[in-house]
Amino acid sequence: MSTNHGANLYDLSNKLGFDKNELKDFSSNINPLGSSSLGKKAIIDNIDMVSIYPDPNYYNLKKSISDYCNCDIENIVLGSGATELISSFIEIVNPKKAVLLSPSYSEYEKELNKINCKIYKYFSKRENKFKVNVNEFINYINTNKCDIVIICNPNNPTGFAFTKNEIKIILENTNAFLMVDETYIEFTDTNTYSSTHLVNNFNKLFVIRGTSKFFGTPGIRLGYGLTCNSQIKDEISNHIDLWNINILASIMGEVMFNDLDFINTSSMTLKSEREFILNELSSIDDLEVYHSDGNFILSEIKSKKITASELRESLIEKKFIIRDCKSFEGLDEYFFRVCTLNHDDNSLLIESLKDIFKNEE
């Protein structure tokens, strides 16, 4: 069973004999409030549109994204999920040398390896609580004369985020293309951390977002990228298929990006629950808990009473799933990650964790 992208609920439910709906998945980082009710209603009300082709220009969808991100509509490219755009951008830029902020999402390295790119990894460190000094990072980029820098912001799994001003400083002081993956940006203060407003002024900046996590729609496979670089936009358009966004994804996107009630409620609720989990986890003496600006929290079993894998197995018996982080380069077998679900589930997880570590004494 692959652990690269969290739990496979289908495999787990078959293996354990549970209904997959019984499992509380703290590994997937998806909005526990579900998806926009207005967006789902739009699909139901327009279900007969499955019989026609989508608008190949996706004007209404791009207009909704433009309003949501406060960016120029002509700077938007669409993808079947963020992963398609990551792959296309890397292939188009075709870098010889790249910097990855590590530990991080594994797909970046996989895509760079496909084009035989030399990879330099700048590791954020446990002793610095995984925070990154922007000037040291810039020096590392320039010293290695890299063509592309890839940043997940906030970073998965550490939760660290560069501010938009720090991203601007990186752009102003390096010559590299900068790909900023903002998959988790809506879980934090976008006014402070999002780079979307920088796109119009820096033609080497490519910002990627998906709708799987914050909007709770991994099933519709909708992602988008922002760039003012006309060559990049044209080449991405040539890489992807005509009508690469299905009409139901387009309809839902047109509505959910404008569903302010859903957006505001999600932001307030999830930030509150993240703080609750951070505080509760920090009260467990066995754990070192790291601050996060994402919808997930990285923790380390500093007492080393059990490994993260053993902790995961103990929790699965209680129908909770956490992410064992030993597969992230730079982390060891004592690191695990949890995301936020609803308050009752979060409370039950904390209670179970406290019981497990108490029984390990």
UniProtKB/TrEMBL annotation:
InterPro entries: Aminotransferase_I/II_large, PyrdxlP-dep_Trfase, PyrdxlP-dep_Trfase_major, PyrdxlP-dep_Trfase_small
Keywords linked to the UniProt accession: Lyase, Pyridoxal phosphate
Superkingdom in the source lineage: Bacteria
One Pfam match: Aminotran_1_2
Lineage start: Bacteria, Bacillati, Bacillota, Clostridia, Peptostreptococcales
Protein name as it appears in the record: Threonine-phosphate decarboxylase
EC number: 4.1.1.81
A molecular-function term among this protein's GO annotations: threonine-phosphate decarboxylase activity
Entry keyword Lyase: yes
Entries under SUPFAM superfamilies matching the protein: PLP-dependent transferases (SSF53383)
Requisite cofactors: pyridoxal 5'-phosphate
Domain Aminotransferase class I/classII large: 25-351
Species: Paraclostridium ghonii
